[in-house]
Amino acid sequence: MEKKKAVKIEKPRIKQGLPRLKLGEVLNDEDAYRSGEVKDHFMDSQSADQVRFDQMIFKQVSFEQVHFHNIELTDVIFDQCNLSNADFSDAIIHRVSFNNSKLTGANLSGSTLRNVTMNGCLANYSALGFSDFRQVEFNDTSLIQADLNESTFKNVAFKNCPMDGVNFAETSLNGIDLSSCLFESLVVSLDKLSGCTVTSDQAVGLSKILGLNVKDG
């Protein structure tokens, strides 16, 4: 059997020694910030449209319940950040890493993601549906009850991700390997399952989801 090539992700292009950057207390529509590091900052519950962050590092920054519709993120690292219930819908996200961050209930629906990684994150109940994923990897990230429905996947990887109850309805899983992930049930479309890699135990579980009766022997 031909060995499947690993997904190659471009890392954020960020220079060493970025200066500490102070954000405004309130962000406004079309605000743009570039080449800086923000640490121990709170932006909770703010609203702004088309905010842009380029070549930025966020460390222990809270974006909880912000509404940054149409946000553009290019060459950005989120490290130990809280994005719970943040609204980043219709975002453009390119060369971005989310590391050990909380995205519970975050809304990234309708977004375009290129060269994105989520490492050790908590993204339960997140809304990622209707999005275009290319060169995206989820590593040790909890996606329980997340929505990934009606999305497009190209070179997407899920590694060691708890994902019970994930909604993949109308999303093609061709070329997707879920064998290292943990789930008892998923929402899937029968005509979109071809080419998905699962373990034998997972296959039995999926067959039950699809209404099949499986007999031993």
Summarize this structure briefly:
The chain is mainly β. It has one helix spanning 200-209, and strands at 32-39, 47-49, 52-59, 67-69, 72-79, 92-99, 112-119, 132-139, 152-159.
Could you describe the 3D structure shown?
- This is Pentapeptide repeat family protein.
- InterPro entries: 5peptide_repeat, PA_immunity-related.
- The protein has 217 residues and is mainly β.
- It has a single domain (32-209), classed as E3 ubiquitin-protein ligase SopA (Pectate Lyase C-like), CATH 2.160.20.80.
- Helices cover 5% and strands 29% of the residues.
- The protein has a seven-stranded parallel sheet with strand order 1-3-5-6-7-8-9, with no helix packed on it. A two-stranded parallel sheet has the order 2-4.
- The longest helix is centred in the C-terminal third of the chain and has 10 residues, at 200-209.
- The relative contact order is 0.10.
- The mean pLDDT is 92.
Write the layout of secondary structure elements.
Blueprint: E1 32-39, E2 47-49, E3 52-59, E4 67-69, E5 72-79, E6 92-99, E7 112-119, E8 132-139, E9 152-159, H1 200-209
Parallel strand pairs: 1-3, 2-4, 3-5, 5-6, 6-7, 7-8, 8-9
